[in-house]
Amino acid sequence: MNSRISAGSGTAAQGAAASAPTRLVIVGGGPRAIGVVERLGASAAQPEHASQLEERPLHIDVIDPHMPGSGRIWRADESGLLLMNSRAADVSIFTDETVEIAGPVVAGPSLAEWADGIRRGEIAAPTAGTERLEEIKALGETDFASRRVQALYLEWFFGQVLAALPGTVSVTVHRTIATGVRRGRANGAGSGDAAWTVALEDRAPLPADLLLLAAGHTDSRPSAARHELAAFARRHGGAYLPPSQANDARLEQLGEGEDVIVRGMGLGFIDLMALLTEGRGGEFTPAPRPDDPGRLEYTASGLEPRLWVGSRRGVPYHSKVRAEGEPTGLTAFQHVTAENLAAREDERGLLDFRADVLPLIAAEIAAQVPGAPAPVEGEEPLAWLDDPLAWLDGEADHQVTRDAVVRYIEADLRERTHGDVTPARTLFQLLLRLHGALVDQLPASRLREESRGDYPRWWHSLFSFVDSGPPPHRLQQLLALERAGVVRFLGPRTRVRADDATGRFIARGGAGTEVSATALVDAFLPEASLAESTNPLLRDLVAGGGAAVGRESAAAPGALDVDDHHRVIAPDGTVQPRLWAVGPWTSELPIGAFARPRTNAPCHRRNDALARELLDAASRGREGAPGAADEGSAGGTWDDVDAHVASDLAGLDAPAAATALQSAAHGRPEDSAWRRQAVLAGVTALAPRGLRTPRLGLLGPGKIGTALARTALRAGLEVHVSGRAAAPVLAAKLPGAVPTPLADLAATSDIVLLTVPLHVALTLDPAALHGAILVDVTNPWGEADAAAVTAARDAAGDVHGELSTSELLARHFTGATVVKALNHIGYHDVEDHGRRAEHPERRAIAVASDDARAAEAVSRILDRLGYDAALLGSLAAGRQIEPGEGLFSGWTTRAELRSRYEELARVA
């Protein structure tokens, strides 16, 4: 089953009757992917594309198990201590008048303007969670928002994109994992011809006329060296934390007061530092001095480990610059020009990055940044910038190393946050412009093979070191932690080895500082490598044997080779037709998925050009596709699908047969009866429920319903919603949810949440929810509910009022299995109170049902939502969680809730 979003006035349905839609599959639903979708929708409404789409609409399949819009990296449920490294006014995912694009500009609010719109009531908040709303409403232009607030901004943006799509463009979100790519149509991938087929983890494959691979950052499988580090830690009772996102790191393995070696001082380290200090109860307080107004002191909680930190450079990324957008007098490039680059090309039109390009960059910096040293012949260009503690070498005691690192951080804060800060701001702005220029002028395909490793990765590392550093107060916190003894500096050129003789990790800085510890943390993101990615599709691209569709880039080791139009290069060096790829695991120079407003941001320019190329390819139909049929039979119409269903299902096992039919049905939005017929035939019941994404139905997207739907979507569930709102309204409110008629809700969902008022629920047709596991989330409030309950008791002969309201609902919905749950948590708490399974204070939700299997199924859903289920027993026990009863109020853990219930039972 798939998450279907229909937007527009229905034009797509009318066009689909005449011709099957062109099917664009996008693997990945994070910011980069949705930026392309936004540009597709914007250009699709222009006259040159609108008429073509009237003839043949465009259907977009987005594949991502994570929340569409924010994706895996930006999560609304992560710690509020994890911050953006840009100020709120400097973050926007919208195009603006400075962006040089062929498509239309569709302006929108920056992160700061979005927060202000919510404060003013002009923009609907994308959350009801109290903590998150407080963060949004307190966010100012110069503040550094939490990453979870950015996730909400991205979710909201995707909702706006879906709601604004023209009727000729439709979107389906598949909450699953793509596992492979093959040319042409594969068994179970629908009828007709297809350029590509995308294999999915828990359902039938998807056919694609056009395919865009847009996965974001992924984890890597352990290298041999990291595997040995983990094995060493296990043998000796220590701990090794490999590269990961900070929110995924198993920090509970690091004990209070324990010495921990940390490799890496970039943004990953800053995140871990926050979680291991403030996240464990420590507190920073202002301790200003005349020469250091931002100075802080740290009061330890006693739960912190002691962090011994080092890296190649031995210092953290540069602080963000104060007022970074103010004019600095930068002029047009004098050295990094198209003419100078062309003059350095060899006879094949190729460049060597370090020999040909880097000297031009160094000369540009020397010419435009006050105080920057001029390049010296024979010396490494920009070594002064890339290795600021190169002078700290040889045998030195810890105090020398400590003083060098502390002085460097203090000087960096002065230069970037105090006084005029013109040179630092100029350097910041110049590197930003240089990075944008290289995006345009220096695709990896223009580099000689000798540039391996230098570009894009070395350059991007230097750019990030200077321009993508943390908020200034994070470096003030680092200094405070050093003074408090929680952090110790190892210095530059840190090396770590595992010593079997002692069973400890030993770290040594380049200047002689040495420490041993039982715990080691690699505080950086996993390296982008196709062959070692945990993503099966990325590995399959180049390791698929004779079926490999791409090749590793010579200029960017470990990355997928793409040309300057993002087209995938086949193993034989040709361009793969109708296959594009973007992201950190490709050979393109890495760019952000969002950017500072009014900077002609490269991400917007690239997204727009790619979107228009996709639309042009869609308008050309099947011509040029691998194994393509004639244009007239391009994929078949949905009438053809009816004729082919039997043959498609014949060779499949039960799960594949079920999902194949669902895949066919979801693409026919104008005929829900066709899908209903397939569902009633029992095909969906064939798929093993433990092997696919759970499907949650929701009846009534009011306050509690919307909060539950958002939480479920962020937890990776597929959510079907039945309500009165139009599809575009629902898409904006709950991006990724599926508008579903009430008649289809039970058949398309594993569990249905009843979130309408109780008196409305008691008037619904019982046949509509026949066969459903129905979770009663209602509470009797107000006169209408009271009257409805009285009438229901009279009808049931309950003259003494002994039945719970859930039992009354069970008598009404005679064909459903009713479970009482989720009625004793406020809608404003649902999005805030969820915790991971091992959290000691995870909140419990009571569950009451006369059916043990139904109660267990609901318990599994609650676990996905971030809550423990506390089973009370029969549906009659649900009376204890009605308003005014003993278990209705208060946050309790499962053990506490059970204890309270047992006490109530004893008293009774």
How does this model look, in words?
It holds the Pfam family F420_oxidored. With 908 residues, the protein is of the alpha/beta class. The chain has 29 helices and 28 strands. The protein has four domains: 279 residues, FAD/NAD(P)-binding domain (3-Layer(bba) Sandwich), CATH 3.50.50; 146 residues, FAD/NAD(P)-binding domain (3-Layer(bba) Sandwich); 130 residues, no CATH class; 214 residues, Rossmann fold. 36% of the residues lie in helices and 14% in strands. Helix 6 runs antiparallel to helix 22, helix 12 runs antiparallel to helix 15 and helix 19 packs antiparallel against helix 20. The two termini are 46 Å apart.
What's this model, at a glance?
This protein has about 900 residues and is α/β, with parallel strands linked by helices. The protein is built from 29 helices and 28 strands.
Distance between the termini: 46 Å
Number of domains: 4
Q: How many strands in all? A: 28
| Name of the CATH first level of the largest domain | Alpha Beta
Radius of gyration: 29 Å
The total of helices stands at: 29
Domain FAD-dependent urate hydroxylase HpyO/Asp monooxygenase CreE-like FAD/NAD(P)-binding: 25-217
Domain Pyrroline-5-carboxylate reductase catalytic N-terminal: 695-780
Organism: Brachybacterium aquaticum
Protein name: Putative dinucleotide-binding enzyme/uncharacterized NAD(P)/FAD-binding protein YdhS
Keyphrases for this structure?
29 helices, FAD/NAD(P)-binding domain, globular, single chain, 908 residues, alpha/beta
Helix-strand layout with pairing:
Layout (H helix, E strand, L loop, with lengths): L2 E3 L5 H8 L3 E6 L3 H14 L2 H9 L2 E6 L47 H10 L9 H9 L8 H18 L4 E6 L3 E6 L12 E5 L5 E3 L1 E4 L10 H12 L3 E3 L17 E5 L3 H10 L6 E4 L9 E4 L6 E5 L27 H6 L9 H16 L14 H4 L11 H20 L4 H20 L12 H14 L4 H12 L3 E5 L3 E5 L4 E5 L5 E4 L1 E4 L13 H8 L23 E3 L5 E7 L20 H18 L18 H13 L3 H13 L5 H9 L14 E5 L3 H12 L3 E5 L4 H7 L4 E2 L2 H4 L5 E4 L3 H4 L11 E4 L5 H15 L8 H8 L4 E4 L6 H7 L10 E6 L2 H14 L2 E6 L20 H14 L1
